């Protein structure tokens, strides 16, 4: 853009089509030409933003055409493997008896209270609480389904 002037007409060729544009001027420097292109805001929650940071392309504002179908397949495969592993990790750490999180919770309470009786009671309360939440979710789903 350094060699171009404001109000100059340029021709841009993209994968979507060919365009003719008239350059504008920078509001801070009227001798500098700019193209008035905006970038859409990213959608998704915090987890999606974090995952995109790890799997982001070189420059998020540049369109990189895939080199072949295999590269797209491998990219999507790795993305899904990452999402499934994160989901399994989160579920596995729930403080419920059948998961590792239940044992971790029991040992944490035992380490804090130094009482096996209190640790067992806390473990039972946590299990009951998680079970009640799961039952409530199933009941809500059942009433919405019918």
Quick structural gist:
A hairpin with a 7-residue loop joins strand 3 (24-25) and strand 4.
Main sheet: strands, sense, barrel = 2 strands, antiparallel
Q: Which structural category fits the helices and strands?
A: mainly alpha
How far from one another are the termini?
Answer: 61 Å
Assign an overall shape.
Answer: elongated
Estimate what percentage of residues fall within beta strands: 5-15%
Order of helices and strands: EEEEHHHH
Within the largest sheet, what's the order of strands? 1-2
Helix content: 40-55%
Low-pLDDT regions: none
List how many beta strands DSSP finds: 4
Draw up the topology in text:
Blueprint lengths: L8 E5 L4 E5 L1 E2 L7 E2 L11 H10 L13 H24 L7 H14 L2 H30 L1
Characterise the protein shown here.
The chain is mainly alpha-helical and 146 residues long. The protein folds into three domains: 1-38, no CATH class; 49-92; 94-146. Helices cover 53% and strands 10% of the residues. The protein has helices spanning 46-55, 69-92, 100-113, 116-145, and strands spanning 9-13, 18-22, 24-25, 33-34. The strands form two sheets. A two-stranded antiparallel sheet has the order 1-2. The protein has a two-stranded antiparallel sheet with strand order 3-4. Helix 3 (100-113) packs antiparallel against helix 4 (116-145). It is elongated. The chain starts with 8 loop residues before the first strand and ends with a helix. The relative contact order is 0.06. The mean pLDDT is 83.
Using brief descriptors, characterize the structure shown.
two-stranded antiparallel ribbon; two-stranded antiparallel sheet; 4 strands; mainly alpha; 146 residues; 53% helix; single chain; 3 domains; 4 helices
């Amino acid at each position: 853009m350094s060699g171009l002037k404001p109000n100059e007409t340029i021709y841009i060729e993209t994968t979507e089509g060919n365009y003719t544009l008239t350059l504008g001027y920078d509001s801070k420097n009227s001798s500098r030409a700019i193209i008035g292109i905006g970038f859409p805001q990213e959608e998704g929650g915090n987890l999606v933003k974090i995952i995109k940071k790890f799997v982001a392309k070189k420059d998020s504002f540049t369109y990189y055409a895939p080199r072949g179908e295999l590269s797209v397949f491998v990219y999507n495969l790795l993305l899904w493997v990452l999402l499934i592993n994160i989901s399994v990790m989160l579920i596995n750490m729930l403080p419920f008896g059948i998961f590792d999180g239940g044992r971790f919770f029991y040992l944490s309470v035992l380490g804090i209270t130094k009482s096996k009786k209190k640790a067992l009671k806390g473990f039972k309360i946590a299990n009951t609480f998680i079970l009640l939440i799961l039952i409530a979710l199933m009941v809500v789903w059942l009433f919405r389904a019918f």
